[in-house]
Design goal:
metal-binding, alpha/beta, 55% helix, single chain, Rossmann fold, magnesium, 5 strands
């Protein structure tokens, strides 16, 4: 089936929308390599994303993210899982749309909150604000939603879907291209 995928499959969306876990399962099913932008940045920098934020700040991290988007744009046939904020940069949105088919994995604030609370690693540097966890999620989602929608070729609401259902939906869309 991987012969169908001559382009990259790119997953964007808010934190805890399912990007990383769907990317892993999709890559396994399609026998394609995976590129997780956050993991690649962590490996390159030798530290966790939360530490990059703490030590160097968000602008530095966004610069690293942009560099990684450029690197990924030069490869083909890869399932790409992005960080939730990659779409904040207009150049990143342009690059992602040009180098693959972009799926916005969308989820409701309540589902995101539930997923974050149940995650083993719920260290989320951007959710440390004064509005409480749910308030911060809503605020960031409202601000980012237009960027996710502008970048996406397809939108999949993962709120009520299993990982396998999301994977099947993506594969189904590709079969019909």
């Amino acid at each position: 089936m991987s012969e169908i995928f001559k382009v990259n499959v790119i997953l964007i969306g808010f934190m805890a929308s399912g990007k990383s876990v769907v990317a892993k399962r999709l890559a396994q099913r399609l026998k394609m390599p995976i590129a997780d932008v956050d993991v690649l940045i962590e490996n390159e920098q030798g530290m966790k994303i939360k530490d990059i934020f703490k030590i160097y700040g968000e602008p530095y991290f966004r610069k690293l993210e942009k560099e990684m988007a450029n690197k990924i744009s030069r490869i083909k046939g890869v399932v790409v899982s992005t960080g939730g904020g990659i779409v904040l940069n207009a150049e990143n949105r342009r690059i992602l749309r040009k180098c693959g088919i972009v799926f916005y994995l969308k989820a409701s604030p309540d589902v995101i909150l539930k997923r974050i609370k149940s995650a083993k690693n719920n260290e989320r540097p951007l959710l440390k604000g004064k509005m409480g966890l749910k308030g911060e999620i809503k605020k960031l989602l409202k601000m980012r939603a237009p960027y996710y929608n502008a970048c996406a070729h397809y939108v999949i609401d993962t709120s009520e879907m299993t990982i396998e259902e999301v994977v099947k939906k993506i594969i189904s869309i590709f079969r019909n291209l």
